[in-house]
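User: As part of a screening pipeline, I want to sanity-check one entry by hand. Below is the sequence and the SMILES for S-adenosylmethionine. Please return the complex as structure tokens so I can compare it with the automated output.
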Amino acid sequence: MGKAREKKNSKGRLDKYYHLAKEQGYRARSAFKLIQLNKKFNFLEKSRVLIDLCAAPGGWLQVATKYMPQSSLVIGVDLVAIKPIPGVITFQDDITTERCRQNLRQEMKTWKADVVLHDGAPNVGRAWVQDAFTQSELVLVSLKLATEFLAKGGTFVTKVFRSKDYNKLLWVFQQLFRKVEATKPPSSRNVSAEIFVVCRDFIAPKKIDPRILDPKSVFDDVGAEEHKKMTDIFKPEKKNRHRDGYEDGDYTMHKTIDAMEFVRTQDPITVLGSYNEFTFNEEESRELYKRELTTEDVKINCKDLKVLGKGDFKTLLKWRAALREEYKMDKKEEDKAKNALIEETPIDEDELLENELINLTKEEASKKKRERRKANEKKMKLIQRMQLNMIIPTDIALDDGGAADEEIFNIKKISKDDSLDKLHAGDMSMADEFADDDDLNDVKVDKNLRGRIKEMDMEMEENLDSDEEYERDLETQMDEAYSRYKQSRSERDAKFRAKQARDEDDEWNGFDDKKKDDENRDKKFDSDSESESESESESDSESDSDSDSDDETVKKVKVKKVKAPKQPKKLEIATTTSNSLMNDLGEKAALTKKTASGLTTAASMFFDQDIFQDVALDELVDNEDNESSDDEKVIHEQSRKRKRSDKDQGADTEAAEDDSDFEIQQTEDVAPSDEEMWDGGEDENSKAMKLALENGLTTVEAITMAKQLANKEKTVEDFIDLGFSKEAFRDKDGLPEWFLDDEKHHNKPNLPVTKEAMNLLREKLKALDARPIKKVAEAKARKKFKAVQRITKAQKKATDIADNPDMTEKEKAKNIGKLLSRATKSKPKSDVRVVVAKGSNRGVKGRPNGVKGRYKMVDGVMKKERRAEKRREKKAKKSSGNGRR
Ligand SMILES: C[S@@+](CC[C@H](N)C(=O)[O-])C[C@H]1O[C@@H](n2cnc3c(N)ncnc32)[C@H](O)[C@@H]1O
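Assistant: Here is the complex for your manual check:
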């Protein structure tokens, strides 16, 4: 019993609405379902007559009287008695009976109802499927009553279970009401299959086809019924009880079939499951009866199939198989099937050759395809390596040449022909010879084959096209499926929703955010100086014409770059021509060369990033002009600029010029000075630093790095160098969302951490854990304060006693001792009184009448549970005591 109760509670029976119902004096938590339904559809306020079918204990009736106009007619009926509710007529009846209908008619007299409610649930703990079906029946019964008592335009509210009958019921509602909406109010538990359907604007047809209110016609599912009635021969011990009576038009319960039919049938399982007996009345089957194969066991089994076990069914199936083999039934069928196949015409030799050729062509095509794929993969690898700056384009050229044009650099051949000497001597005719060689080779190829190869190429191209299309389709499908998955997951998983929201908040959008900020700032500056905006628009249009890049991102960057009025022409050309990745990288490689004298490769790669490009180039160009490439000067210049803009933001005309210059503004933001970073500007780094300054370092990685820096084991440059991992250059453009999400989850950089750092963080967390929470600290402080107050009071009293001349010294000492001991002792806690929320205490808010001291409001169930728990504890103690004895 106790366990059952626990189970119910753990499911959330005593949830928020349960307590709310207790608090507000509703008899059932279901009251909130009607409140919420009414909030959505507003049908109670404008109703004068209401019938509640299945109304006990009366929660909905209470809500109805509260929300409907005063002196409305409210009638409630249920199988169980409903405790009286002021202004409500109730009676006890089964809504499926004629008597209930008569009683309702009597109460309603000539009135028509504005609302009929139905919250019936035959919840007697049967199987869910059974419950659902009976519920649906109950719904139809209540709908029938509603059609009789509802006024035109009236509302019918009913509970439906999401079962196979749900759609059928909806269809029926739609035949009778103009508006039908299914909804699940928040107070309805998610675990419950119930759903509420609000049917408004009753059509009130003059004649209703009785079939749409007849459960048999509405829920008829002949196939399923038949299937239900079949014995499951794989689990014959699980007997279905069929209380539905006879099937339509078939009034025999005992079904027989001739044994020979069983042997002949293609579906022996259904036959075994559907019949009661195999008979041997026909001539063929009589013969069968006499055969050796038909053993006594088989004969007995055939007599009553409904009592057979799994083994018996097996025997019958084996018997059938043996007979079929003897009669060669399977072979006959096989032959039939074979004959049904299309006759193959003999293939002549020409065709054979043709086929062979086609096969060869196909093979060749797939080989080429494989090769092409390999070459592509190789190319991709090279590009990746280039992106990681593992190689430079000149290396690639060599590499590529080496791979693709092996023949050109075929040293063996050269040495054999003594061509090397010729080459040394500057005789380039040899190269032409090689080229001619290639042509000759080509000529050697059979003309026919060349034709075929051409065809193959075309085919391949087509294949590739369709492959690409297929891949694109697949990708879109996967993207769609993923967004569907994300949506459904966010609907049912609150944690996931929270994570998504967090991700959105945390997501660092690279420099796009900054771009927005800059744009905003730009706008501000635009309004400050209109004349400048004019010149800017000019440069804008210029840039537009220049930016023909395919790549959106490249385009954006370019637009900004060209906007810079001070941009040197050289740079303009460089940026406008940097359309492809190759060009971009080539440019970078060139830059690397330029800076190679002063910076490490990693550092030059760092300053190669787009955001530094202009500044670096700017400075470099300047420096080039001045014939001085001193890095310190560059840095000094940058910090000088920053300091100046710090001093008077926008006021200074030169600074204003810079501000109007999108590029320079951005560069300054991207590379703030050290002080700016630690002062906590608006960018991500400074935000992180601000947090670190406020809360200290909170990750082991950060502590490790900080320690290494402090101990001079590593320098800032080392860390910057370390940042140039494959992670830093991973190009995420065009990758599907599901892939990126998965990567985010699994592909986390593995930064080195030390044991020391780990211990340090642990200690820090321990200290944090040890700190009392605010509430506890406050309570402790209060306690201390009260104790001090008590002692001061006692001290005061003690001085009075000491000064009392009427007391002897002994009396004084005794009284002071008592006083002090009382003051230092804390008061014993008074017991918590348990008050049951029933009778006058029902629905009371705050302290109940006549209750002093500490108390706790409980409902009857809770009190009973507590008692049961105590009983169990007592029992357990007793039994353990007995055990010991
Ligand atoms: C969930 S309760 C209704 C709660 C009610 N709406 C309230 O707020 O208090 C379902 C009720 O349906 C009643 N019921 C089930 N079958 C019934 C029938 N055939 N006739 C009348 N009442 C029935 C049950 O007795 C039960 O009290």
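Points to compare against the pipeline: The mean pLDDT is 70. The two ends are 29 Å apart (CA to CA).
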